[in-house]
């Protein structure tokens, strides 16, 4: 493998970032900038306005967050020095967590501001002083109108996922907010698509912006030989479990699992080893010697799975590889083509599997456009599928043993047992022992099918994975309702039943997820007991389903 790969110039240091940020990126395990970061960070540091065309998953958050932090001097101004506007509270939380992580060493004070959260907490934080505000347009405007947020010191405004903000009807709010910021500010606009309305905003509010678009190299003809491609849509919380199941069913001889960061490499390796796989991590930071040893174990068959980042796997060429698995959709479609070029060599069949979060489906489409091949979406194996697969493996091991002719020495065991039992009973007991020794039946909860992509959900219906109030109690509860699609259930049936029976206003009902047999509904914890009681008496679609708090831990 090429030793120069880890030269600082090839990484973030070459983009001119300050040491505190470089150290944060090292600790997060980011090895090299994504294409949008490479294109956007230098002009943003130089103070230019910028229009970036990039979807979720391309690394766009760091592309604008790092330059914001580059020029941060705490306490220099009274009001925030940067404002990022985002379409949903979910994104507000994510972006502000990212700013916090990158700027930890700089002591950055960042505040997410969105509707639905008690305003008191936001007011307190604002009065103590913040450096960066990340908010949804409606709530930001609310604060401006109350006089609790002053934007006179803002040097940079970011409009993130601008197309979504326009789709959600925030155009006027955005105009009103921009009018409150200094005219000499830097303005940055990111959008996955560039319809004329976005262009119009860019023309009106940005000054000679630099334009950064994700590059589109054509793949070399024939670069996707004989590769069976597929993708699974999985919510982030269930990705590791989903990966385990997919591997159980695929049973690869030798596979490489690509992750985004070193941290993720370590977590995935640990999960897979816990599930009984022989998985090894391949890091950019490992010495050549260590890497050679890992590769040797893969070639020799004592390791079956490599877990690696792109950088660590560069130049890696293993004849035996049968599967390439993308634990995330790669940030650039070209990277996907390079990754899966590692299987299906020399006329052999290869398999490329990608796990995509609901928000990342757009990136799968970009890959399909680049390669001209469709990536079919598959359903995750269910617990029943896995059990059937394990029984099949047990059967196959028995078949193999039957084909060998070294069974005679076990005859005395059969002979002595058949005095009391018939041969079939003895065979069944032997199969049971073999099955259990190979891991036995799996006993794990089902993975719920993911919520639809965020674009289809209004702001108050978004998933809220980690909501905890200050005292550590969930302020949102998920209810399990034992009726699903098979009974013809639609979201409006649940909203109608909950609102009608318990009096909880429809606007307080959060994300609704409907699977074949059951549904999950988010409601405020404070109303949970009342709703459960009321729903237990209700008839929905002719049935009286079980209603309880969801037990599955995420
Ligand atoms: P985003 O497109 O901003 O939503 O980022 C997608 C994911 O990629 C986030 O989980 C980031 O933490 C991660 N990420 C961003 N930049 C990099 C990088 N250069 N290397 C590895 N992971 C990254």
UniProtKB/TrEMBL annotation:
Residues 242-387 form the Helicase C-terminal domain. A motif (Q motif) lies at residues 10-38. It is an enzyme of class 3 (hydrolase). Residues 453-476 have a biased composition (Basic and acidic residues). It catalyses: ATP + H2O = ADP + phosphate + H(+). Its EC number is 3.6.4.13. GO terms for cellular component: cytosol. InterPro entries: DbpA/CsdA_RNA-bd_dom (IPR005580), DEAD/DEAH_box_helicase_dom (IPR011545), DEAD/DEAH_RhlB (IPR044742), DEAD_box_RNA_helicase (IPR050079), DeaD_dimer (IPR057325), Helicase_ATP-bd (IPR014001), Helicase_C-like (IPR001650), Nucleotide-bd_a/b_plait_sf (IPR012677). Gene3D superfamilies: 3.30.70.330, P-loop containing nucleotide triphosphate hydrolases. Residues 41-212 form the Helicase ATP-binding domain. Keywords: ATP-binding, Cytoplasm, Helicase, Hydrolase, Nucleotide-binding, Stress response. One of its GO terms (molecular function) is RNA helicase activity. It comes from the Bacteria. Residues 10-38 form the DEAD-box RNA helicase Q domain. Residues 439-476 are annotated as: Disordered. Belongs to the DEAD box helicase family. PANTHER family: ATP-DEPENDENT RNA HELICASE DBPA, ATP-DEPENDENT RNA HELICASE RHLE-RELATED. This is RNA helicase. It comes from Paractinoplanes atraurantiacus.
